[in-house]
Amino acid sequence: MEPIVISAGHTLTIATDVPFVDLVVGNQAVADVFPLTNMSVYVQGNSIGSTNITFYGPEKQILGTAILRVEIDTGDLQNAIDRAVPSARVDATNVGG
Prior knowledge:
Elements: E1 4-7, E2 11-15, E3 22-25, E4 31-37, E5 40-45, E6 49-56, E7 62-71, H1 75-84
Parallel strand pairs: 1-7
Antiparallel strand pairs: 2-5, 3-6, 4-5, 6-7
């Protein structure tokens, strides 16, 4: 399963395939996750790192787990490098994800 990737300080709405009644976030320091409906959640990236979101059904059975990775938004850094040194061949990217 590919992780869901979001930048720190950004938000994202995620839809699920099946209705859920509860969820647990592995590391709330990495992301806040708020249920919107029984089939969607609102995610806010807090700090760099990875966590998981486990979705539960009415009998507390696990319906599924999503892996969430919060990364640095390198776009502004890349723009600053490009402006400061236009001839530089430098790419700002996230590593270690």
